[in-house]
Specification:
The chain has about 260 residues and is an alpha/beta fold. The chain has a domain of about 180 residues: Rossmann fold, CATH 3.40.50.300. The chain has nine helices and twelve strands. A hairpin with a 2-residue loop joins β11 and β12. The chain is globular.
Amino acid sequence: MSDNATLLDIRNLHAAVDGQEILRGIDLRIGLGEVHALMGPNGSGKSTLAYTLMGHPRYEVTAGEVLLQGENVLEWSADERARHGMFLAFQYPVGIPGVTLANFLRTALKAESGKDVSALEFRKRLREEMRALKMDDSFATRYVNEGFSGGEKKKAEVLQLAMLRPRLAILDETDSGLDVDAIRVVADGVKRVIGPDMSVLLITHYENFLKHITPDYVHVLSKGRVVASGGRDLADRLQEEGFEPLFAELGIRDEAEAAAARG
C-alpha cells in the first residue's frame, strides 16, 4: 500500500446472502487515486463484495466495517452511498423502459450534486463523452439499455462513470462479454476519467483488460477472503498459470469444488 490517503477502508467484512455466508473477513484499503484489481475464480465472492459495498438489500453484513474517508458506509442506504461518491458499473446492466439515457444521466447528476445542470451544458458534455466512447449521438434518445448489445450496455455504464465522476468506481467485470476492440474502447473510456480524485476497484477475470488499465495493486479472492496481493506481475502470473498453483502454495484446497457448491 502506498502513502496515499485512504479513501476506502474495508475491515474484517463478513456478508451473507439468503443466510449463507459468502464474505468471510475481507480486509482491503484503497488509497486516493489508486486502481486496485480484484481477481478470483467464480464463486469466490467478487460480485458479492461489490453489491455489499453498494448496499444491495439482499446482502446482509454480519460483521466488520466499511469506511469511506473515515465515515461509516454501512449506516447509509444505497442512494446515500451514491450521493457520497460511490459508483457501481454492473456486470449485467438492466434495461429501464421509457427512460432515455440522456434523461437518466441528467437526473442522476442532479441527484448526486443537488444542483440542476443547464440543458446546454449537459448536452455539450454528454456529446463529448459519447464521442470519446465511440457512441452514436442517437444513443442519448434511446431507452436505457433497451435493445442494446452487450458491448453497448458496457459503454453506457462507462458513460455514466464519465458523467458522474465518482470518488470510488467499482467496476464489476465491465470487460466480460466484450470482443478485443470493445475492451479497448471501454478501457480507454475508464482511463480517461481515472485521476487523483477517483479511486477504482476493478473486478475482472481477464488479464487482457489489465493490459489497457495498469493497476497499482492486484488482489486475489478465494472463499470470501483476500488471500494474496501484489502488483501487475501477480496478474501476469495468473494469466499464465491460472489460480490453482497459487492456491496450492497458499495451502488452499478444493477451490473449484467449493465454488461449485456455492453455485
